[in-house]
Design goal:
- The protein has about 325 residues and is mostly helical.
- It has 13 helices and 5 strands.
- The strands form 2 sheets. The chain has a 3-stranded parallel beta sheet. Strands 4-5 form a two-stranded parallel sheet.
- The longest helix has 29 residues.
- It is elongated and about 75 Å long.
- The model has no long low-confidence stretch (mean pLDDT about 90).
Length: about 325
């Protein structure tokens, strides 16, 4: 594995349940090639899960292992990247405390996600200190490994910019310790939920990476298509169809062209279109399911991967914190 600090990548996900295909095309598809060209660190952000799910932590251990299996099934290679669990690297908590000392509260209050989620998530009390301060923990997670690249979507750029601001503020007080990480933008992948809303496990409108064909088939049968196409003989419009974005991701271009033409001139019905998608989806998921079956049959390997990744991450974190403590005269 390449440990050149000038080519490091870091990213993570919260263990809040199984991953759906939106997670794959929105993040994992971009992580996988990075592990071959950069020194890559991917972490399970279990402390971050507590910022909103602190009232019920009973599923966290299960979700941690499930998330790692999802990653391995999707193609992350523990020989090419460091896969670790955030809470096993206690240095993250120490750096979070130190960075929290110098981060203005106004920076946290202006965070757009903080405002949006407080308005949107009405079933949970998000008035806790941890939720307000999670960008500082996020900055600690990132800066600990001094990466050059952090793969993010367009909507996450404000989070990364706050990390860069915290790094600049630290460096202005204590010397040039942290390089400012750069965004590696993840191309937007449109993966609407089966009902047209955002794909989410809380809505029950997702196709999960672990779903079997038997589980997927009724989901696709009930999938929304062009709302104006009421009969088989009505011409359709792929541009407003909830299903067609998936063909763009999973179906070959020649077949996509045939689907568009058949939909617009009403020679291809929605049922037939869904059958084509089912075949494309099965072909995509088959190698993921094969890898999943292997790791589910060998849970000790998953434990070993995490333990090895934790050890490697801990060594990196210890080296960083030695520099930080020295710079702060602690």
């Amino acid at each position: 594995m390449n440990h050149d600090p000038n080519s490091r990548t870091l990213s993570g996900m919260r263990p809040t349940g199984p991953l759906h295909i939106g997670h794959y095309f929105g993040a994992l598809k971009n992580w996988i090639p990075m592990q071959h060209t950069t020194a890559s660190f991917f972490f399970v952000a279990d402390w971050h899960a507590l910022t909103s799910d602190y009232a019920d932590t009973s599923h966290i251990r299960e979700y941690v292992n499930g998330l790692v299996i999802d990653w391995l099934a999707a193609g992350l290679d523990p020989e090419k990247s460091v896969i670790f669990r955030q809470s096993k690297i206690l240095e993250h908590a120490e750096l979070n405390l130190l960075l929290g000392m110098l981060t203005p509260v106004s920076w946290l209050e202006r965070n757009p996600t903080y405002k949006e989620q407080q308005q949107e998530i009405t079933t949970k009390d998000l008035s806790n200190f941890g939720f307000l301060g999670y960008p500082v923990l996020m900055a600690s997670d990132i800066l600990m490994y001094r990466p050059k690249w952090v793969p993010v979507g367009q909507d996450q750029l404000p989070h990364l910019e706050l990390t860069r601001e915290i790094a600049r503020r630290f460096n202005s007080f204590y010397g040039n310790v942290f390089p400012e990480p750069e965004a590696r933008l993840t191309p937007a992948a449109k993966c609407p939920g089966l009902d047209g809303r955002k794909m989410s496990k809380s809505y029950g409108n997702g196709i999960f990476l672990k779903d079997t064909p038997k589980e997927i088939e009724p989901k696709i049968r009930g999938m929304f298509t062009d709302p104006a196409r009421l009969r088989r003989s009505d011409p359709g419009n792929p541009d407003v169809c909830n299903l067609y974005p998936y063909h763009k991701l999973l179906t070959d271009e020649a077949t996509q062209k045939e689907i568009c033409e058949g939909c617009r001139n009403a020679t291809l019905g929605c049922v037939d279109c869904k059958k084509i998608f089912m075949k494309s989806l099965e072909a995509f998921l088959e190698p993921l399911h094969e890898r999943r079956a292997y790791y589910e049959a060998h849970p000790e390997i998953v434990s070993d991967i995490l333990e090895s990744g934790n050890k490697a991450a801990r060594a990196e974190a210890a080296a960083t914190m030695a520099i930080v403590r020295d710079a702060m005269h602690l």
